[in-house]
Amino acid sequence: MLKFISSIGAALTLLIATGAQAEEGPATLPYPEVTIFKAAKIITMEPGFPEARYVATADGIILGLGQTLEELEAWTRDRTVTVDRQFSRQILMPGFVEPHVHPMQTIMMLPIPFISPEPWDLPGKTYPAARGKAQYEQRLREEMAKSEDALFITWGHHKLFHGDMDRAALDRIAPDRPVVIWQRSFHEIIANSKALTLLGIGEEAAFTAAFSKPNIDPGHADYASGIIHETALFNGIEMLRPYLFSPAKVQQGLADMRQMMLENGVTTSADLAFGGFGGPEMESALFKSLYDQPTTPSRILAIPVAPLVTGDPNVWLKDMKAKYDSPKFFFSNRIKLFADGAFFAQYMQMNPPGYSDGHEGKWLTEPEELLKQTERFWDAGWNLHTHVNGDKGLDVVLDITQQLAVRNGQNIIIEHLGYSTEAQNRRIGEMGLYVSAQPNYIRILGDAYAKTGMGPDRAAQMSRLGSLERKGVPLGLHSDFNMAPIDPLYLAWVASNRITLDGNVKAPKERLSLDKALRAITIEAAQVIGLDDMVGSIATGKKADFTVLDRDPYVGGAAKLREVEVRGVVFEGIWFPAE
């Protein structure tokens, strides 16, 4: 009885104390300062609440949405409120998501001249298209004349547009100057004799020794032709490092990459080859010098390449997060794997009948080794992003996937998916896989590959994305810069129109719907990199990231997506104009 009375007394004491506390005054409201953005229309990409006129933000996140200011009273009452009406005639969409870029590659490429089959509009410079051997060689001589670099490097050559190129041809064009040409795929470089000498591999014995490494296929570095590609490429890049990564070029590349992201509305991206160019420590320090600045209106997820993650993957991840994680540069349990070779170089592995000229594709990772890498990271609980381009390569990846133990909370993402069959797309849908696709293949290569290598039917059905939409596959669109511009609206236009450089429409049934194309640069792009709880749509609790457009992309339709202009971005509630 005494114990019971004591309990009542304690309860009464608690009630009295609570009541007294309540009488002291109201609890402090969260988010005392609120900014509300008004727009002509807010496209949320949320099916349950697809449109709004007002969005309330504070401390970098979204508090709520409404059609009127009055509807947001729950977040305005007793607070200091700023109503920003500068977008009253413009459209807000979620900040665009770029699910597959390579910042180190971007930094390397932006300072060098582009001579490619298509025109390029880059920060501070434009490059016209070059078609045919004569035009390519003329542009090459013009660009060399502008440069005083000890080693001249250019990017964009493709033999189907510009004719064959090797060491002898480059010696003829530039007999007295070191020159390196980067093939349009990025997976191949061609050096003349002066360049090989400058790089210390001018003699055959030295060349052979430089590429005699355990992970390099001997056939991927050829002294006679001066061609270095695929598994030998990163060794070649290491030799080029002093000419690619001078302090001035690195700073220019960082500034241009920031501007390119801003001009095209990208607020979130993922690095799908983190560590592959300079190692995890160097790249972390470099990227943090850009992304951790308040003047950079974007964030990036670092996804490392498999061979760099040594020891226990989860110990490696814990250590990297402890040393380098920040709100705008961060890691997660995701890994990049490689199956077959480059699509732009016709190095992808193709099932019978193969290539019309009889050449063979290449493996970046032999299937047996790919199985080991896949199982290692899957068993550690990681999500897998596997680069694969041809249908033979895809068969290998899908067969490996079927051998994995079913686990909850892990995803497998097919990266690029240059050519797949309808049967393979059915497997992708049935297995619950995601796809991060490169739509620019059909734009640049649809006509050329119909004539050489693939034939008209397979070439027309590259980037078979309409099929994936019909099967309900979550899908992101990526640039893999510089395989395509870092320009999500351009990628959406390509995927929803399928018009080649020569103006031909290829396999119209494989077009994405306009809505799916826009989802593939927002919410579904976020989903394929595991960030859809944070970005990709305009919803309460998510980051206050908005891309500001001059018009509604749904009104003009798929055909007019390229006419939509990005005015800038709101990143975590702060406005950054594009100009």
Head-to-tail CA distance between termini: 78 Å
Give the overall average pLDDT: 93
Radius of gyration: 26 Å
Which class do the helix and strand fractions yield?
Answer: alpha/beta
Give the spatial strand order of the biggest sheet.
3-2-1-4-21-22-23
- Global outline: globular
Q: How many beta-strand segments?
A: 23
Beta-strand percentage?
15-25%
Major pleated sheet: 7 strands, mixed
Total DSSP helices? 22
- Helix content range: 25-40%
Which regions are unreliable across 5 or more consecutive residues at pLDDT < 50? 1-23
Organism: Parasphingorhabdus flavimaris
Protein name: Amidohydrolase family protein
Pfam family, one: Amidohydro_3
Keywords: Signal
What is the element layout, followed by pairings?
Blueprint: H1 2-23, E1 33-43, E2 51-58, E3 61-66, H2 73-76, E4 80-94, E5 96-101, H3 103-109, E6 120-122, E7 125-127, H4 133-146, E8 152-157, H5 159-162, H6 167-173, E9 179-183, E10 188-191, H7 193-198, H8 204-210, E11 221-222, E12 227-229, H9 233-244, H10 247-263, E13 266-274, H11 280-291, E14 299-304, H12 313-324, E15 329-331, E16 334-338, H13 367-379, E17 383-388, H14 391-403, E18 412-416, H15 422-430, E19 434-437, H16 440-451, H17 456-460, H18 465-470, E20 475-477, H19 488-497, H20 514-519, H21 523-528, E21 546-549, H22 553-556, E22 566-571, E23 574-577
Parallel strand pairs: 1-4, 5-13, 8-9, 13-14, 14-15, 16-17, 17-18, 18-19, 19-20
Antiparallel strand pairs: 1-2, 2-3, 4-21, 6-7, 9-10, 10-12, 11-12, 21-22, 22-23
